[in-house]
């Protein structure tokens, strides 16, 4: 009897132990599964964040063209919302931009393999890559990656234009020099007057090429981000007076009245790269001289205020047509190419001036009336407590 009792107790203890172990195993398995699910969710959310951060638009479609994934960048680029997709309006919305990005087209684009296209839509330029998704040998869907290349494309375009412009600007005087030199070498003229005239043309075209090359060198130094503007304390009024003095001769030779409107004793201390700022004032003032007819008038004023100073140069010259005014700060832009060349222009003066002024934290603007005259205003920041005579 007592043996049977002992046996029953032992069996009961074993049963409880087995049940306990089984319950513990179940709890551990459930905990492991929860952990795996949580880690999976974390990975998915990390993947989504990473994909959203790439800046590229990403769409993933299954083999039937249903959306598996679309990130924010893609929605923004294509102008679609989550509710458009849920309501099945994706194709309709996207067709307003480009049929190449409708679901059917995306599936077709990658049907033969990976492809790439340049697509223009909504005012931008995009590179769209289509990648075929394979799973166990069968087609599982398509990944479409949309990258905005508007800026780099424009930069490339500008570079191509720039090289074409430089080549063209150099080719014209080179052709002139070559043809006059050839005429002289072949003994084409025995008249000393004509010979001198030809030599003067060669000299002036060579000078033009020289100006162009030095403007280009200056521009490339300004473009080079490793070269900083050398800011030192200087008197802008003194600098402006010295440029006026230097250009007084050319102004007189055209019978122009060149008026300094600010006080002889004015001083305006600012931080500037003196040589470059001199170039700015020189460019604007020599434009006023070039583009004002004989007997005209040019006024140069300096207007210091608490935090900034304005250099204002106005003329009553030929003026600039309204449609050209926004473009005069572009490299190589001239209203009348032949006239600008004849007057010794390169079409780079205002572009260089703007670059220098902006490098000083300032701005440059222009107002003009065709046939009546032009006013160019340069605004420069003045360090606090400077700029007014006597305060320094
Ligand atoms: P350029 O070397 O040809 O003078 P700029 O870059 O200095 O080149 O000027 C660009 C163009 O803007 C000039 O070709 C000219 O057509 C116009 N322009 C600049 N300043 C004046 C001005 N004061 N009056 C009339 N036109 C001007």
What is the structure about, briefly put?
With 392 residues, this protein is an alpha+beta fold. The protein contains 13 helices and 12 strands.
Bound molecules: adenosine-5'-diphosphate
Helix/strand-derived category reads alpha+beta
Q: Give the percentage of residues in beta strands.
A: 15-25%
Oligomer: single chain
Summarize the main sheet. 5 strands, antiparallel
User: How many β strands by DSSP?
Assistant: 12
Q: Bin the helical content.
A: 40-55%
Number of helices: 13
User: Ranges with pLDDT <50 over ≥5 residues?
Assistant: 385-392
Roughly how many Å apart are the termini?
Answer: 116 Å
Order of helices and strands: HEEHHHHEEEHHEHHEEHEEHHHEE
- The neighbouring-strand order within the major sheet is 2-1-5-4-3
Report mean pLDDT, rounded to a whole number: 88
Overall 3D shape:
elongated
Overall radius of gyration: 37 Å
Task: Please characterize this protein's 3D structure.
This protein has helices at residues 2-53, 72-78, 82-86, 90-95, 103-109, 150-185, 192-223, 236-246, 248-253, 274-290, 322-325, 337-342, 349-359; strands spanning 57-62, 67-70, 115-121, 124-135, 138-148, 232-235, 257-260, 269-272, 297-304, 308-315, 363-369, 373-381. Residues 385-392 have low confidence and may be disordered. It is α+β, with helices and mostly antiparallel strands and 392 residues long. It is elongated. A hairpin with a 4-residue loop joins strand 1 (57-62) and strand 2 (67-70). Helix 6 (150-185) runs antiparallel to helix 7, helix 7 packs parallel to helix 13 (349-359) and helix 8 packs across helix 10. The strands form three sheets. It has a five-stranded antiparallel beta sheet, sandwiched between helices. A five-stranded mixed beta sheet has the order 7-9-10-12-11. A two-stranded antiparallel ribbon has the order 6-8. The protein has 13 helices and twelve strands. The structure holds adenosine-5'-diphosphate (ADP).
């Amino acid at each position: 009897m007592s043996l049977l009792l002992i046996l029953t107790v032992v069996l009961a203890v074993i049963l409880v132990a087995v049940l306990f172990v089984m319950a513990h195993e179940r709890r551990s398995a459930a905990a492991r599964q929860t952990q795996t699910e949580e880690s999976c969710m974390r990975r998915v959310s990390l993947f989504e964040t990473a994909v959203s951060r790439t800046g590229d638009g990403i769409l993933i479609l299954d083999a039937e063209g249903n959306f598996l994934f679309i990130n924010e960048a893609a929605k923004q680029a294509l102008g679609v919302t989550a509710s458009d997709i849920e309501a099945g309006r994706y194709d309709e919305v996207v067709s307003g931009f480009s049929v190449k990005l409708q679901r059917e087209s995306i599936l077709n684009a990658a049907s033969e393999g990976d492809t790439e296209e340049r697509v223009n839509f909504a005012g931008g330029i995009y590179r769209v890559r289509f990648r075929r998704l394979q799973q166990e040998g069968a087609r599982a869907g398509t990944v479409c990656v949309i990258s905005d290349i508007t800026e780099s494309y424009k930069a490339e375009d500008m570079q191509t234009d720039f090289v074409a412009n430089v080549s063209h600007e150099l080719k014209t005087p080179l052709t002139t020099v070559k043809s006059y030199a050839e005429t002289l070498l072949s003994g084409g003229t025995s008249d000393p007057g004509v010979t001198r005239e030809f030599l003067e043309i060669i000299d002036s075209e060579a000078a033009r090429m020289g100006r162009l090359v030095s403007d280009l060198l200056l521009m490339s130094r300004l473009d080079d981000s490793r070269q900083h503007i050398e800011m030192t304390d200087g008197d802008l009024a003194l600098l402006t007076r010295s440029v006026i003095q230097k250009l007084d001769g050319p102004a007189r030779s055209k019978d122009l009245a060149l008026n300094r409107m600010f006080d002889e004793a004015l001083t305006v201390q600012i931080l500037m790269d003196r040589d470059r700022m001199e170039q700015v004032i020189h460019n604007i003032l020599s434009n006023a001289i070039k583009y004002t007819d004989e007997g005209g008038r040019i006024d140069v004023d300096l207007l210091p205020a608490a935090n900034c100073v304005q250099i204002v140069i106005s003329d009553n010259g030929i003026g600039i047509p309204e449609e050209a005014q926004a473009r005069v700060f572009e490299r190589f832009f001239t209203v009348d190419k032949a006239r600008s060349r004849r007057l010794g222009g390169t079409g780079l003066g205002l572009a260089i001036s703007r670059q220098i002024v902006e490098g000083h934290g300032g701005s440059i603007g222009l107002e003009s009336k065709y046939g009546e005259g032009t006013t160019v205003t340069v605004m420069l920041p003045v360090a606090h407590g400077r700029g007014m005579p006597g305060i320094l």
